[in-house]
Design a protein that fits this description.
four-stranded antiparallel β-sheet, 3 helices
Length: 259
């Protein structure tokens, strides 16, 4: 009798450890907003946001930002956006699928065949729309915590300068922005704020109309910025904005110049 009870207890203990089932995968409905199947991302990156994600800024995580103007993506009620990449070797995928396993989203770039000539690895990049209710409580994407939205550069100040004589003011790195501060006068007070250790700061005077924000674009060759928001507005004269950014020094590619 004692032996039988011991055997039952042993089996029960086994079932509560090694026998614990994994969360059931739930395939989600996906709206593929953008798919660059032949992209050049070097591995897995992800951003998850309730508002649209600028893929140019997102690509700054690996120094892959471009100056290409993206088509505007409007916010959508009940939609959460996911920017995600992977490395697929020599294969150019044809589609992307998302499943949920517990609090993790598993993204798979599927289909396609290996290229006969593989001079570089393929790193597909996708912007996806997911139902917000379906991703409630998600903590990770492909097992990793998503990165902060907006790429490695964080907007720290956005100042509307108006329509004055601000044309031709060159960008500057904070800590050596004396000429920009002189040109801006009182509007340039934020340029004197100290930059925390381990970070770098950059300032730009940008020409626009009625924009509401800006993003830092980080590539291996250069660091630039662009205005965002304010679509479908007309101006009688160009408006100017001062945008400053902070970025981890480790996320600034060696040799990238400020433009």
């Amino acid at each position: 009798m004692w032996i039988a009870v011991a055997a039952v207890l042993a089996l029960t203990a086994c079932g509560t450890t090694a026998g614990t089932p994994r969360p059931v995968a739930d395939r989600l409905d996906v709206d593929v907003v953008t798919l660059d199947a032949d992209g050049s991302a070097p591995g897995r990156y992800a951003e998850l946001s309730a508002s649209p994600i600028d893929l140019r800024a997102f690509a700054g995580w690996w120094g892959g930002a471009t100056d290409d103007e993206p088509d505007p993506v409007p916010a959508r009620a009940g939609t959460t956006f996911l920017a995600v990449t992977d490395s697929t070797g020599c294969r150019v995928p044809e589609s992307v699928a998302v499943t949920r396993e517990g609090d993790d989203l598993v993204v798979t770039f599927a289909g396609g065949v290996d290229r006969s000539e593989c001079y570089r690895a393929v790193g597909p990049i996708a912007l996806l729309g997911l139902e917000t209710s379906a991703v409630h409580g998600v903590r990770t994407v492909n097992g990793e915590i998503p990165r902060r939205k907006g790429g490695p550069g964080q907007l720290t100040h956005f100042v509307e300068l108006g329509t004055g004589a601000y044309n031709g003011i060159a960008p500057a790195e904070l800590g050596s922005a004396e000429e920009m501060a002189r040109r801006l006068g009182d509007e340039g007070a934020v340029l004197s704020e100290p930059v925390p250790a381990g970070r770098r700061g950059f300032a730009f005077v940008l020409t626009g109309c009625a924009e509401t924000g800006a993003v830092l674009l980080v590539s291996l060759e250069k660091i630039t910025a662009d205005l965002t928001g304010g679509e479908n507005t007309n101006c009688d004269a160009p408006a100017y904005f001062l945008a400053t950014f902070a970025i981890s020094a480790a996320d600034v590619p060696a040799g990238a110049v400020l433009e």
